[in-house]
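Sanity check

After download, print the first record. It should look like this:
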Amino acid sequence: MSEKHRQAFSHGGDVASYAHRKKTILDFSANTSPLGLPFAGCLALVSCCAGISQYPDPYCRKLISAISLREQISDTHIVCGNGATELIYAAAHAVQPRRALIVEPAFSEYRRALLITGCRESAIDSFMLTADTEFSLTEELCAELCRRLTGIDMLFVCSPSNPAGTVIPFALLERIAAACAANHVFMVVDSCFMPFVTDDIRWQRGLLHSGADIIILKAFTKFYGMAGLRLGYALCSSEQAAENIVNVLPPWNVSFAAQCAGSAVLDSRWYERRLRRLITKERQYLYENLSALGFYCVRGRANFLLCTLEPLIQTGILPPGFDLPYELLKHNILVRRCADYAGLGSTCFRIAVRRHRDNKRLIQVVKKIIAAVERVL
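Expected structure tokens:
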């Protein structure tokens, strides 16, 4: 792979690019569980070694059965994938939309999946959320979004959103789903970060029974710390929608190891409660400390914060064009630049919520960087 190709990778978690450094990278760019893989998943990985020589179950029967029990949905409405990203591409390939709408700022793979499956750039519309509403979808904006669905074939929404972490109220999601049903729009709801907010799954039923073609994307990657195993799934509103997605997926797309670990972790209730408490507490710690330093931070509810340097630049504390992610990298701390998100600029960055010692280290380094700049200015 060429160096140019490597630099084009814009997502978080690319610590391999810094493997040449003598010190370990403290990665705040990837929004995965700071607790790591649940113990049940670790045991499952060890015990599955004997079966690695066999092909994985192409239908993920045991895994889908466990998901069906947890999500209280028929197993015929569930599709598993090599991470939720594979299912984003599969959904776009299955629908083959001529026109699409994305609620943005959003994960860039929605647009890329649409383009790869033949939807022209000019036919992909953006419904832009802004800092004026803290990147939240209000009642007024929801009404406008529903009006924009005329002539659209596919809609992508994310809740909690990436990179802002804001949650679309469930009542508004149901209104959007009803509008999608009326306009024959295939709706993709990316809820991969919802487990950090709640374990209540009742909201899903309203969407899946709205009469619209809908899939709800979920992932083991973030909440269960399984990014390296790659495992996601889609809850589909109909058997036909599930079948259409399965038909465009490659065989054996979910590894044996991922199926074993995924089946094991879904009953890790103690882990889940502990993780939510940790994220809530540490997210507030980061929000308060960064805000006190002059940053603007969005009050998201996921396991990350969207921040901007703009207030510090406007007040002259930092010079125009100041590159905080670059300065942090000098201290072996990696954060996610957000300039590639539609509607966001070079002063925006996203930081994952980690354990307290890591979050404390981040705040200490940021203070040190700002103090050094103030001395120069």
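If your output differs, re-run the checksum step. Summary of this record's structure: The mean pLDDT is 94.
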